[in-house]
Design a protein that fits this description.
It is a single chain. With 425 residues, the chain is α/β, with parallel strands linked by helices. It contains 20 helices and 15 strands. The chain has a six-stranded mixed beta sheet. A hairpin with a 2-residue loop joins strand 9 and strand 10.
């Protein structure tokens, strides 16, 4: 396998057997007692500290429940471990699932339907982000939080390239066109800088197509290869990836990654989430040199883009349904998200009643863009997310060679359509 995609997945030898493993799941959860609730996610020690406050609040509000946290260090190890636990009946009561995995978990009957069980107002979540968590009319999970890939831009880099227009100002008047964007990336490259940088994952290539007026799927059928607008949009970007005007973050060398390029003013635009605030502040640079803008479109009007998210689910075999639901509702509530995401948090709340988290500090200047992109955005397509590792395979084995100039746009899209038809049928 080639270089890994956005989440830098490690190939798990047994992951291709996920459907068989899940289909044979039996038993109950891993809770040690009727009043115990175990929950799990992935993250570095620093990231996991963000969960301390919400856990402490839950323990205070529910002293009758013993809450046990079972974290896993890496995303690549997390789902294989969870599959094993589900198979052996030792899985946590409540757990995170990635947006590229949630649909496959749902289809194998290991999650508790939460509509009618949770006390949360489902209308407070972007319904498009719930699509990947629905199956046969039931809802099985809700997004914990999310990260729309805004285009972070470096004003100093733009100035060095002789660019005088402000992207956010153009967007405010619907003049943020694909033509205007590519004119800027061309000037940046001509000045010896990098035009724009993207992670290679479903959110990038699906957003390119969406913003170009194209269509990725029609129901469960992959149609980007037969849709002229989709082919044109992707070709416009692929041409610039091949020329080096645009770069793929996954392919950058260690020590010279996208964060380094951004804070050293060598990069004009970076498609990334709210976590970029921490990158900028941690580098000690003037943070006012950076702002965000939505993706450009041919006519300058806003268009939906992919929103990266993780989802919170409840084990269908939980021994403590009431306790699991209590933690679930606490964790995903506006108050719970505020405890996790305030003061430099690394994501955008998934529930609209917690929007002030993003706006409170007034940074970046156009922080509202993150919320607008969340509300207009879409999740990974259910048909794709229902097949274990399919999104990653598309990114690594098909899109990456396209960006490297090793395949044509039409060849790539035709091959993806055949792959989806084979694996998702």
């Amino acid at each position: 396998m080639n270089t890994l995609s956005r989440r830098r997945f490690a190939q798990i030898s047994g992951l291709s057997l996920a459907a068989a493993v899940l289909a044979g799941c039996s038993g109950s959860s891993g809770s040690s007692g009727a009043n115990t609730v175990t929950w799990s996610t992935w993250g570095s020690p620093e990231e996991l500290k963000r969960y301390d406050a919400v856990q402490e609040q839950f323990k205070k509000d529910h002293p009758e429940v013993e809450l046990v946290f079972q974290p896993t260090a890496s995303y690549s190890d997390y789902h294989s471990k969870l599959l094993t636990q589900l198979s052996s009946g030792t899985a946590p009561d409540v757990f995170y699932v990635g947006d590229d995995r949630i649909a496959s978990f749902i289809r194998n009957g290991v999650l508790l339907p939460i509509e009618g069980e949770t006390s949360l107002d489902l209308d407070s979540f972007n319904s498009s982000l719930l699509d990947v968590a629905r199956f046969e009319g039931a809802l099985y999970a809700l997004p914990n939080d999310c990260n729309p890939d805004c285009l972070w831009f470096d004003k100093e880099a733009l100035k060095a390239a002789g660019i005088t227009e402000d992207p956010a100002t153009l967007a405010a008047s619907d003049q943020w066109t694909t033509e205007a964007f590519f004119a800027m990336t061309a000037k940046l490259k001509a000045a010896g800088l990098n035009g724009a940088c993207y992670w290679n994952y479903w959110g990038t290539h699906d957003s390119i197509i969406s913003c170009g007026g194209g269509k990725v799927y029609d129901g469960d059928t992959y149609v980007a290869n037969t849709d002229p607008a989709s082919v044109k949009a992707l070709e416009e970007y692929a041409t610039r990836f091949r020329s080096g005007e645009l770069i793929v973050a996954d392919l950058l060398p260690e020590g010279a990654g996208e964060d380094s390029l951004l804070v050293t003013h060598q990069l004009g635009f970076l498609a990334a989430g709210r976590y970029t605030i921490g990158t900028i502040e941690g580098a000690g640079v003037d943070k006012d040199l950076y702002d965000i803008v939505r993706w450009p479109t041919p006519d300058g009007a806003a268009a939906p883009t992919g929103v990266a998210a993780s989802y919170l689910a409840i084990n269908a075999k939980t021994k403590n349904k009431a306790g699991a639901l209590a933690f679930y509702d606490t964790y995903l509530s506006a108050a719970g998200q505020e405890l996790r995401l305030s003061e430099g948090g690394n994501a955008v709340p998934s529930i609209t009643s917690a929007d002030e988290i993003v706006l409170a500090d007034g940074y970046p200047t156009h922080a509202q863009t993150m919320l607008d992109m969340r509300d207009a955005g879409f999740s990974n397509y259910p048909v794709e997310a229902a097949v274990t590792d399919l999104s990653n395979e598309i990114a690594v084995e098909y899109m990456q060679p396209l960006y490297q100039g090793k395949a044509t746009t039409q060849e790539t899209l035709d091959a993806i359509a055949a792959l989806v038809a084979e694996k998702a049928s």
